[in-house]
Amino acid sequence: MSLPATARQYSYPQLGSFNNLVIQDVPVAAPKANQVLVKVHAVSLQFRDLMVASERYPGSIPTNLVPCSDMAGEVVSVGEDAKPWKTGDRLHKEQTPEISASSLGGQSQGVLVEYRSFPAHSLVSIPSHLTYEEASTLPCAALTAYNALVSGYEQVKAGDTVLIQGTGGVSIFALQFAVASGATCIVLSSSDEKLKTATKLGATHVINYKTNPDWHEEVLKLTNDRGVDRVVEVVGNATLGQSASSSKMGGSIDIIGHLGSAAGNVPAFDIIRPSIGKQLNIRGVFVGSVAQFKDMNRLLSAHPETTRPVIDRVFPFEDARGAFAHLQSQAHVGKVVIKVSA
User: How far apart are the first and last CA of the chain?
Assistant: First the structure.
């Protein structure tokens, strides 16, 4: 197929706010020998995208940054050495070592653009039952949850009790994977409406942490003072102490985010004491590998309905700033997606 001469692309002429995003036409170049040119159909947003926009993300950010890291698209041109891809393949990119080191949409240019080239080895096929919008949610949110609970050092299993913080992208995928594994799930949120959604997705118990600020006490009551086997920790130091107090002897805490770390000033002793006393396994989780991505997609295909991505809202490409604003409002459950092209 013939390639367009130009494509629309979002970038930041100046950081400070997502409201600084501008859209412009840029040339579309043919892929290099080891690259694949992709027509981007959908992009999903991460909390990290807000941090980058507001200059709270570590590292050196390039001039005129193109934001966002997660996309799903269609192959439109293939470099001569870019096997096994062919025109028309549906795919998304994954965290290869070089991409992890440079961080798409952070330390390197991102994916909020109509066409973009990627290294052939960094791409993974989309499960056939998913739309582009659904598939765009997988690279960071789903894979992080999968790495934490299914493909990490200890797989969640039937009979386990898992405590999940929040109802954002990673948290909802963690709930779905834990439920699919036969685990009992306890979900925390500040919204009763969001907790209703969590219950529909399989949560056995829900706790509103606004009305129960000492929520670890509720967790212990629900587990007959035993504590939970696993905690999916998305907030950071503001809640890590309560997560440790909620855990069983020898339990595990998977730290996958720091949504509230800036707001929390919890004494280290309040975190260290229960962690040592209970001999907890505390593990940091950063997305996952291409091999894990392929394994996860097989799980998604085997359980197409119970693991289908939860999308809160899809915004048109022209309203990317509206999508960022919706994410910042924290009114969403699951993922916020931008539809780039039909």
Answer: 16
Distances 218 to 224, 226, 244 between C-alpha atoms, Å? 10, 12, 14
pLDDT tens readout for residues 152-178: 778 999 999 999 999 999 999 999 999
**Is the separation of the CB atoms in 113 and 7 below 8 Å?**
yes
Residue 333's identity, in one-letter code, is: V
CB within 8 Å of 218: residues ≥ 6 apart: 207, 212
* CB-based contacts of 94-101 (< 8 A; 24+ apart in sequence): 94/122, 94/123, 94/124, 94/139, 94/143, 94/287, 94/288, 94/289, 94/290, 94/293, 95/122, 95/139, 95/143, 95/286, 95/287, 95/288, 95/289, 95/290, 96/121, 96/122, 96/290, 100/286, 100/287
* Model confidence pLDDT, tens digit, residues 61-80: 888 999 999 999 999 999 99
Unique residue bearing structure tokens 């829900």: 206
CA angle 317, 24, 75 (to 5 degrees): 60
Distance CA 163, CA 184 (A): 9
Which helix (H) or strand (E) covers residue 326, if one does? helix 320-329
The closest alpha carbon to 47, from 341, 342, 330, belongs to 330
β-sheet with 281-284: strand ranges across: 205-208, 184-189, 161-165, 228-233, 247-255, 281-284
Cis peptide before 31 (omega within 30 of 0): no
